[in-house]
Give the backbone structure.
Amino acid sequence: MYVKKLPELDYGVSTTIKALGGKWKACILDCIYLEIRRPSEICRNITGLSLRVLNQQLKELEAGNIVYKKIYAEVPLRVEYYLTSWGESLWPVIVAMNEWGNAYRHHYGTES
Amino acid sequence: MYVKKLPELDYGVSTTIKALGGKWKACILDCIYLEIRRPSEICRNITGLSLRVLNQQLKELEAGNIVYKKIYAEVPLRVEYYLTSWGESLWPVIVAMNEWGNAYRHHYGTES
């Protein structure tokens, strides 16, 4: 049978694709990695991302334990997002995916 | 504005996700990386993958210049698939995605 060089290849890769799925998550993690932590700031920093969509993406990232939030009892309330250890360990994978994807895109001049 | 730590993050990551999209491509590249090159052999080695779906995936990988095929003028005709330089350079990204994804999956015992 299939003696995979990589154990459970179909699960490992698809899990990562699911964790990063969609157009925004990598950008949002990039912001948080850059210590841009408040939703309003993150929104201002990513073209085309609405607060509603951002909050949905943050909820998914939080549910997946890739980010966590701190709530400061201030008026108005202050909320900030941080990378969990899973978020931190995902970062080099995002960098590798980003580098390959951009080299490939520039070579083929595709906008996809 | 968004001074991304990673240039064109949204494009780079999504290009890689698109190149690897779906459940089968990473497994197919794994087979070819393991020098399992003929469609019939690849099919036998990946549970649940039909020849029809495999041929579709190989066509996409070929169109994306991630794999190429060699046709041997024999009877019956022999066709073998190889990784292009893009396929070769994608391999470490697949390994990184696979490792993160499996560690994450085992930690959360999810089947996703």
